[in-house]
Amino acid sequence: LPALAALLPPLPGPGGPGPAEVGLGALPAELRAAVRALVGELDSLFTALGLREESFAVGALSRVVAAELASYASARNRRRTATSKASVIFVDRTLDLAGAVGHHGDNLAEKILSVLPKLPGHKTDVMVNMVELTALQTTDETCSIIAPGCLAQPNDPAAKALWESFMNLKQKEAVMEARRHLVEAASRENLPIKMSMGRVTPEQLSSYIQLFRNNLKALENHCGLLQLVLATVQTLKHPQTSKWDNFLAFERLLLQTIGESEMPSVLNQLLPMIKSYNERTKDDYACEDFLVLLIYIYSVVGEIKCGKELDTAEEKVKRALVKAICDEPEPSPLLQKIT
Questions:
Q1: Is residue 53's pLDDT more than 90?
Q2: Are strands 84-91 and 51-58 parallel, antiparallel or unpaired?
Q3: 274 Cα distance to chain centroid
Q4: Shortest CA distance to 193 belongs to which of 207, 177, 178, 175?
Q5: Is 70 exceeded by the pLDDT of residue 21?
């Protein structure tokens, strides 16, 4: 439900509703309206599918949503007449922040969705730069003459099968699948493809894609597949992808440190890595990266022992982050939103 992508459970804390205050009336007005909108949309969806649902909830806001759906007048009528049954599980997004910000997936689909720019107006699809398939050769990243490609290819069976493998296989296997599909498509179109064994590189995939470029019929027949392979090439070449592995290594190190010592020493380990814009190299973490790491640390650490040492460590990290954010010459949209 992309329209409600911003719907998040309120975080527990000073002034926020505690776990005992479960009920729509305990929520702020804006959140109440969003919950009612969600319940209405879910009811419309289940009506279209002819479903009689049985709801389960994990988390305070999920219980509110499930209760509202159970007592919704239109939903009660639908449940009397619906022919199919379904179980619906609501889970509060804030219960797994570590999963949302962690980099543990060796999964190509996750990397493509994280790295490539979002398709305007969409929350779950990305823009794939299609310039490589045209005679217009430009280095301009924001070239808007050529309409972007995307991941949703419902009318192309080969592309659908490839997307499944992006989600279900390890990255290395998924990239080999991309090469196999390209080779099969090129063979069907009698394009002069040279099959090579061994490791698949983005350059090799690009050279295969180039074969389709001047053949309009082949382009038309395999457009969906080519968009997914281009998304793969652009993701593998993206600087953020190499940073992904750095994140993963650092997260593993943090887990080890958290297991052996207290929170203040973990924060002190993070402190020297927070650098202002002028001090950073391309391998250093930016401000957003630290916010992601901090969310990860506080989500996996469990109970935190409060005390003077923790206050001091947190204060130092806050100061360093505020300085780094203030020194940004061009703050990203996310930093602008936060500040």
A1: yes
A2: parallel
A3: 24
A4: 207
A5: no
Of 204, 200, 226, 201, the closest CA to residue 213 belongs to 226
What is the pLDDT at residue 52? 92
| 244 in a structural domain | no
Taken in order 153, 157, 160, 165, is the CA torsion positive or negative? negative
31 lies in a domain? yes
Per-residue pLDDT, 98: 82
Residue 103 in domain: no
pTM confidence score: 0.75
pLDDT at 181: 93
One-letter identity of residue 19: P
Question: Would 247 be classed as within a structural domain?
Answer: no
First to last CA, the chain: 27
- Residue 307 CA to residue 118 CA, distance in Å, equals 42
Contact residues for 144 (Cβ-Cβ < 8 A; gap 6+)? none
- SS3 state at 51: strand
pLDDT over threshold 90, residue 152: yes
**Nearest Cα to 231, choosing from 136, 139, 115?**
115
Q: Are residues 127 and 221 in the same domain?
A: yes
Contacts of 71 (CB under 8 A, 6+ apart): none
Same domain, 176 and 232: yes
